[in-house]
Amino acid sequence: QVQLVESGGGSVQAGGSLKLACAVYGYSDIILQMGWFRQVPEEERDPVACVDDYREKYVDSVKGRFTISRDNAKNTLYLQMDDLQPEDTAMYYCAARSAGGTCSLAASWYTYWGQGTQVTVSS
Fold first, then answer.
1. What are phi and psi of 31, to 5 degrees?
2. Residues with Cβ < 8 Å from 97, sequence gap 6 or more?
3. Secondary structure of residue 81 in the 3-state scheme
4. Is 25 helix (H, G, I), strand (E, B) or coil?
């Protein structure tokens, strides 16, 4: 069983920064692809970024502002978010999949999900 636990959310003003973390518990050595998604109430869960052994991918709206990284020694995924804007306000979720190859920005690709951490950006 794999469990994902997010942390690091909070409230910031526009232009500020936050760093999210997602700790992986359980069979962490089988996790090869991970991603961050975000969701606002009554809307679909949207992709933010993903990472595998060789690459990172980002949606256009966060390129140059967000950085996804992974510390395998700590079994933790990170999302550094800089120059945050009100439109970044959402519940942020981490996701994981135990498969090789290129990571995907499709939510349906992932098997394991965390409970989410709220990010609120005020103008």
1. -85, 115
2. 31, 32, 33, 34, 103, 109, 110, 111, 112
3. strand
4. strand
Distance of alpha carbon 27 from alpha carbon 63, whole angstroms: 31
Q: Are 24 and 4 in contact (CB under 8 A)?
A: yes
Alpha-carbon distance of 94 to 58, in angstroms, equals: 14
Structure confidence at residue 100 as a pLDDT band (50, 70, 90): confident
The Cβ-side half-sphere exposure at 123, using a 13 Å CA radius, reads 2
Q: Are 38 and 92 a contacting pair, CB within 8 Å? A: yes
CA distance 101 to 115: 25
Per-residue pLDDT tens digits for 52-64: 989 999 999 999 9
Task: Identify the burial level of 63 via C-beta atoms within 10 angstroms of its C-beta, where 0-12 means exposed, 13-18 middle and 19 or more buried.
Answer: exposed
Q: Is 104 helix (H, G, I), strand (E, B) or coil?
A: coil
